[in-house]
Amino acid sequence: MAPVDTLSFKCALVTGGGGGLGKAMAADLIKRGKKVFIAGRTEESLVKTAKEIDATGYYVLDTGDIPSISSFVSKIISEHPDLDCLINNAGVQRPLQVLGPDYEFSLDSADQEIDINVRGPLHLSVKLIQDHFSKLPDGAVIMNVSSVLGFVPFSVINPVYNATKAWVHFYTTNLRQQLARADSKIKIVEVVPPQVESDLHRDRSDPDDNKKKSGASALSIEEFMNDVSRGWEANEDTVSAGPGIGMTKLWDDVFGSKLQAMAK
Questions:
Q1: Alpha carbon distance 239, 87 (integer Å)
Q2: Which residue spans within the chain are E strands per DSSP?
Q3: 118-135 confidence digits (pLDDT tens)
Q4: Exposed, middle or buried by CB within 10 Å (0-12, 13-18, 19+), for 36?
Q5: Given pLDDT bands bounded at 50, 70 and 90, which one contains residue 12?
Q6: I need a surface site. Which of 9, 10, 15, 213 has the fewest CB within 10 A?
Q7: Cα–Cα distance, 219 to 193 (Å, whole number)
Q8: Which are the contacts of 207, defined by CB distance < 8 A and separation ≥ 6?
Q9: SS3 187
């Protein structure tokens, strides 16, 4: 049994949907006629964004609050049994340096980054697969948002972020393989952003160092979404944009066939 097509779903939950890439992906899907719920930690942002993009609704959710995820999944599938897509987009990036000089290395901050970027997507995806998606006769879609920094960790100031996104990449790869072996109709997609203009660098001394106005070679959100939309429409398992397209293809060319052979 083949998984469903990427854009076959009807109702999506987008975490981190109050702004940035989550908001952009949610808005694109709404324009395609999808029913979209956004989730995030700040209700004020969710209310504003939901109204702006005409989202179906919103949920206040901290994906780093792991004990709350099980009850959240039960709540959303009870209230919206037509939910058939999860986009794990919520994430934080913390500059951390073991010996400085520009930033401290806070273990508490690192732990929270791991909870939000790793444990949150893990718990959400597994709970939804086990409790809901695997029971849908028409299949479902899960999109996990990683980063080119999970493939090549060139932003040395973000060691924990880079590692969490490498985790997302490999987890997504193996989740896809496991579901294929289980003859599941659930489609697993990895979205791999390169550097994009957003507020991801808000914890840096210069929060605008990923903006074109500051000389960064970053994509605008519109440029990012143009490539992502094409990848979705092409039903690709791995969807990236700009320079990320070549980087992910290089990984596939070098390791993809080796992975398939060794996984057998």
A1: 13
A2: 11-15, 35-40, 57-60, 85-88, 141-145, 187-192, 238-240
A3: 999 999 999 999 999 999
A4: buried
A5: very high
A6: 213
A7: 9
A8: 199, 201
A9: strand
